[in-house]
Predict the 3D structure of the following.
Amino acid sequence: MLAEIISIGDELLIGQTINTNAAYIGAKLTEIGIEVNWITSVGDDRNALFSVLAIAEKRADVIICTGGLGPTHDDLTKDVFVTYFKAKLICNEKILNKIKSFFFDRGVEMPNINEEQALVPDNATVIENNVGTAPGLLFLNQDNKMFFVLPGVPFEMKTMIDNEVVPILKTKSKKFIKYKILKTTGIGESSLFEKIDNIQELEKFVKIAFLPKITGVEIRINSINESEELCLKNMLLAESKILEKISQYVWGKDDENLEDIVVNLLIKKHKTVAVVESCSGGALTDRLTNHLNSNSYLSHSIISNNLNTTSTILGVLPESLIQFGAISAEIAVQMAQKIKDMNFSDFGVAINGNWTPTQNDEDFGVTLIAVSDHDKNVCEKLILKRDINFNKQRTAQVALDLLRRRLLIID
Ligand code: ATP
Ligand code: MG
């Protein structure tokens, strides 16, 4: 069963409102095995909506529209549907009483225009709205294609999707759609693609997508089948074939996040870490402290914006700064070692970089992330010339992943 979501409202087209409704509905339909093939946004315009409906009716089996059901002049969705389905409007007493008591309960006099919301098309089924005044509607065409019409207010839309629409559609859906996300850091999508190598073989039974994010590339494995068991079996097979090739880059799955994984490893292994950040403003410390017991594994953190001060505190010799250069792997490793030893920690992590653009500065963007423990020092160099938010997120992620690898002794 194929679905199209139609989001109605000028505010969506001019970038004032992000279309979160469509995202929510897409996720809910996918959960019950309905494939969303199209999301269409259209302004508050009769002709445009009319033509969008005609296109959707041809290609989709289920059409879910949101927005423009309110009582004001720019809310024209109901009007368009009345024309499209050649309906007559009749007053629905039950809805009228509900709208009246909705206002009465709030101690507000009902504006006359709200009375119009009780007028419903004679050939539509009413979808109850227990959290607002605009009722939803369900139209069927001659081929039994379903047109759901819901308010745009996200809270009302969500309640109606969950309580009314999903239960109706669930009984009609014959498919299962399952997803699995493998999360990686420290490798680009092209390299992942090359390393996995046999994508065409995998695509015979699942769909694979590479989704680059600031924090790393996610690999989505997607299976659509007649049975849930087959979906899960195919996904598991694809996952194991992918992991055979790139397991060292995969730090987690689905909703997992890297700081939870690292923190859980630190706690489980009774290890402590000390951190020094000289350019990232505490981005790593922030993520390491997203846990109530952070003082059990984070022994110390220095967040400084001045490498000279940081070096003095840590006891990095000025001669070393001159010998190796302030923004160098040697200095980053020294900082990691010194913060570790200063706090008797198992791991030391240092972030040191030059994020200040100045003319002819060869170091600009160079970022060094070092992790030191009793056995080894590792250091990774990033060149970050984007905005500060990007730099912080990417740096913290790479630092966490280096720490994860040392905790698991992965090279
Ligand atoms: P109302 O009865 O409140 O007028 P309505 O059905 O007319 O409901 P709209 O007027 O289209 O809905 O939108 C109401 C609110 O919901 C607006 O603040 C709008 O920005 C928001 N909204 C509408 N559509 C979406 C969408 N697709 N995603 C997120 N928010 C939306
Ligand atoms: Mg409105």
In short: Residues 388-408 form the longest helix (21 residues).
